[in-house]
Amino acid sequence: MFNKFTEIAERACQGHAATADEALVVLQSSDDQLLDLVATTSKVRRQHFGNLVKINYLVNLKSGLCPEDCGYCSQRLGSETDVLKYPWLSQADAQRQAEFGLSGGASRVCLVASGRGPSNRDVGKVSNMVTSIKSSNPGVEVCACLGFLKDGQAETLKASGVDAYNHNLNTAESHYPEICSTHTFDDRVDTVTRAREAGMSPCSGLIVGMGETDEQVIEAIQGLQAIDSDSIPVNFLIPFEDTPLAGTYELSPQKSMRILCAVRLMCPDRELRIAGGREMHLRSWQPLSLHIANSLFLGDYLTVEGQTAEADLDMVVDGGFEIVGADESAVELRDRVRAHRRAHQQAFESETVPDTPPEPGDTLTLPCGKSAGSSAGSGGAVPIPSIRRRGAGTDQVPNA
Ligand code: SF4
Q: Which ligand 1 atom sits closest to the C-alpha of 75?
């Protein structure tokens, strides 16, 4: 088996994707083989991305109250999950939130809004945000994630400076009717196609652990190959209370790692991002997962809190990685974040919490959020992350 992994990885290093059958062997390999699999697959990651990690930062522009019924989503139709619900952020607030992430090392900001899809007015609003963010922060990449796109909207976003458009395929076409009834897999493919044809980089990925079979994981990855996804976030199901998938715990850390390896080997030169649910499912394998993935979301997610931004940067530093687009080394950036966080703790205790993003060279301004310490991984065997109560849509400083 070891030789088989080596053979697949050597081809992937040359840019040739593993076949579906080979990826199925990877997914179904044993825990005993996992370290061999990870070591071998990490060579593919190194071949295509060296020692770089790309940091992305989510800004939830509009939260909750979606009319769609995606079974995994805390913002779905009729959801009673106690997530933050708020209308569109102002342009100034969106920019302020984005700049916290940029100060924490992000080179891409992901602007996300709940809902089936934007109106033309919404697209105009986001376009203005993007123009403003990019004019103040040269070099930043912006990804928009606004739902299904209608005629002309992708072109408008592209013209405003949007670099990428996220619309996840989520799961296999054959599994899609099990997780959603208000739209189809083909609807999702249509929007990714519109984004790509307008010149935006397609960002589309998965949510695993939703009752799909191993064959359906492979089918979903083949779907991502077919739409030519440039960046692939892999989310691990967070089974929110009051959603149809509540109580669904199908992933182990080892299985989660095998899924990442299968994606890397089938999409060897694509950005692979560890995304929502990583703390809960990868657990103590998270740092090692960066030797397979080359990208992560910093800090919190749309509706739940992640581990601290400082812990994210620790993983980057401890793995010997550097950060894409950073003017300073990962160690310097992590140490700056650490100093800011300590300063914030002191400021918070004296109730003079700073609310501006830190600049490189600052030593006293990075806030870490009131709820630091309450995030995923803080206790219990498989803790569900805390609902987000900081950052966008709150008066609390974000986790960045
Ligand atoms: S369309 Fe998006 S926000 Fe709405 S329920 Fe589905 S995943 Fe959630």
A: 8
- Whether 259 maps to a domain, the answer reads yes
Q: Establish whether residue 66 lines the binding site of ligand 1, counting it when its CB lies within 6 angstroms of any ligand atom.
A: yes
Residue 382 lies in a domain: no
Residue 28 is given by DSSP the state: T
Residues spanned by the domain of 316: 45-328
Q: Tell whether 180 is covered by a domain.
A: yes
pTM of the model: 0.91
231 strand-pairing partners: 203, 271
By the 10 Å C-beta count (0-12 exposed, 13-18 middle, 19+ buried), 269 is classed as: middle
Count the domains in the chain: 1
263 domain-assigned: yes
Closest Cα to atom 6, ligand 1: which residue? 70
| Chain segment 218-240, per-residue pLDDT in tens | 999 999 999 999 999 999 999 99
pLDDT at residue 379, as a whole number: 31
* Residue pLDDT, tens place only, 195-214: 999 999 999 999 999 999 99
In ligand 1, the atom with minimum distance to the C-alpha of 76 is: 5
Q: How far is CA 249 from the centre of its chain?
A: 20
